[in-house]
Amino acid sequence: MPTRSYCARAVHVFLAAALLACGDDPQVPTAAAPVEATTFTGRVNAVLQQAPSVRITDQRGKNIKGLLVRWRVTGGNGRVSSDSVRTDAGGVASSGGWVLGTTAGTQTLEARVDGLSPTVFTATALPGALATVALATVDNQVATVNTDVPAAPAVRAEDQFGNVIPGLPVTFAVTLGNGSVTGANQTTNAQGVATAGGWRLGTQAGAQRLRATVVDALNGFTTSVDASAVAQPGPAVDLIKIAGDNQVGSFGNAVPVPPGVRVVDIFGNGVGNVPVTFTPGPASGTVASAQQTSDPANGTAFVGAWILGPTEPRQTLVASSSALPGRAVSFTATVSTSQFDIDVRFIGTVNNPVVRQAFLTAAAKWRTIIVGNLQDTRVVEGAGECASWIPAVNEVINDVVIYARVAPIDGAGDSTGNILGQAGPCAVNTRTWLTTYGLMEFDEFDLNALVAEGLLTDVIVHEMGHVLGIGTLWDVQRTLLVGEGGNDPYFQGAGARTQFTRLNRAVYSGTPVPVENSGGIGTRDSHWRESILRNELMTGFLNRSSNPLSALSVGSLQDLGYTVNLAAAEGFSFAAALYRFPVEQSSRRLHNDVKRLPLKGFDERGRVTRLRQ
Ligand SMILES: [Ca+2]
Ligand SMILES: [Ca+2]
Ligand SMILES: [Ca+2]
Ligand SMILES: [Zn+2]
């Protein structure tokens, strides 16, 4: 083939290259070869360490200079630095660098020269650094306590572009609930997934949690993800008594706290939807809503009410379940023969059942102490006479009515001057000079703290004591209190003195019975002296351990004129109280809880006497 005619044809076909080379000795691009490798490995979205390049040679194997080479990415969404470049003196055209696309896997690049087959370069794009770990199994699995969740938890490791990352170590660990993991240490597979051997939920019903932690040591990243599960209680195996045992009630009335049980599984978790039946024992009254179903939230079931029967002094109630043969629990109630009636009336919203029950429990307690019938008193007066929130009264009161409310008084806390509650009588009967009606109010800001400290019932019993006259009627038509306002006030009633002497055993040598000589009006002169009587309930400071209502207080009620049952007094050791309870560390100030209210006297026919403005 003549050179000229070949060249002429070459000019026609390979215009760009031939223009420079054609002449007497035209160069025709004949071969393209990679300068180094055609296969590479690198990271997604990163430039390869080695820039792909190609050498173009002519028909005689000589390098062609200045020939245009176009670089084209044909697989993967990468890019090159120089997509059109001319060969250098060595016939070499470099891509300038290949930045791989963001999708892991095989990516391709071509160097194209007119008239030659493209030179193909291949790169294996590896995933990038660990960015996210996601659950690969369904979350919030549900299983019975102490069993495995249905699907063993699995996680997937991905880089920031969503490429899965194989070969990373994964550790599974329980972070909530007392469960356990088998096969806790795994490595992500080709799909970037690592699966724990299994997750056994703990024995405690409720929310449980597992954490999978993935470590990308190469890039210095650690990422974790949580899997949640709900452990459901196992089958019911037993009934447990939770409320309402050993109460004191009266004939024909419901016990203050409705008895209740919790249906439990073998681990003590509450089991819901189990039938529970409450059955009164022989001569033990009646129940309201005897058939109950345990609460799905906590397994509890309460009888609607247990109304005590008329004759039996000690009555019983049995809770059982048709689902739990042979598993029954028994409650007892002592029937008080007290003829003393206290009617607690809540004013406004007293929604907390714990608070309402504490009032009823307190009233039941005082009824075990004061047992004699007192008085019928006709009371007629308008609303707001004793305090703004007291309604109009127009009735014959059988012994005592107590109005009770929970209201904002002065904020929460236990600092000086903070009032937890206040109480006192509003009216007395002019024959007995004992309370016909009174009030008790509690600071809503302090109530939750009292509940949390377990002091609520003690506080309410204490305040009810003031309504009944302790510290409030000592100087009404009586002279039980001596030395009021001085350094050594004392109570001189014979009943209290007898009990004080019996309890005292020569510890206190002053004049009995010592009355509080410190604190503001509402604390001093109306409580037993804290420094001597320490944890007795009717001191002005509540002790955190126990506050017995002792024979001393019962004796003082006798001095006021009540018919009492001294045997119902709670055990109180004077010497032990003196040495065991340092005042400031262990007590809660009641802060002027005796409220000086206007006091009226009413006789049986409703005639009024103003005793105090
Ligand atoms: Ca009565
Ligand atoms: Ca307060
Ligand atoms: Ca005390
Ligand atoms: Zn008090």
Structural topology:
Elements lengths: L2 H11 L1 H7 L7 E6 L4 E5 L9 E6 L9 E8 L3 E2 L3 E3 L5 E3 L3 E2 L5 E8 L6 E8 L3 E6 L5 E4 L9 E6 L9 E8 L3 E3 L2 E3 L5 E3 L2 E3 L5 E11 L4 E12 L5 E6 L3 E4 L9 E5 L10 E6 L5 E3 L2 E3 L6 E3 L2 E3 L6 E7 L7 E9 L5 E5 L6 H17 L6 E6 L11 E6 L1 E8 L13 E9 L5 E9 H9 L3 H12 L13 E2 L7 E2 L2 H11 L25 H4 L7 E3 L7 H10 L13 H7 L2 H4 E3 L9 E4 L5 E5 L1
Parallel strand pairs: 2-10, 12-20, 22-30, 31-34, 34-36, 35-41
Antiparallel strand pairs: 1-3, 3-7, 4-6, 4-9, 5-8, 9-10, 11-13, 13-17, 14-16, 14-19, 15-18, 19-20, 21-23, 23-27, 24-26, 24-29, 25-28, 29-30, 32-33, 35-36, 37-38, 39-40, 41-42
Helix pairs in contact: 1-2, 3-5, 6-8
The site of one calcium ion (CA) has 6 residues, from loops.
The CATH level-2 architecture of the largest domain is identified as Sandwich
CATH topology label of the largest domain: Immunoglobulin-like
- Radius of gyration (CA) equals 45 Å
- Helix/strand structural class: alpha+beta
Q: Work out the helicity level.
A: 10-25%
Number of separate helices: 10
What is the topology, as strand order, of the major beta sheet?
31-34-36-35-41-42
Strand percentage, roughly? 35-45%
| Overall pLDDT score | 90
- Name the poorly predicted regions: 1-19
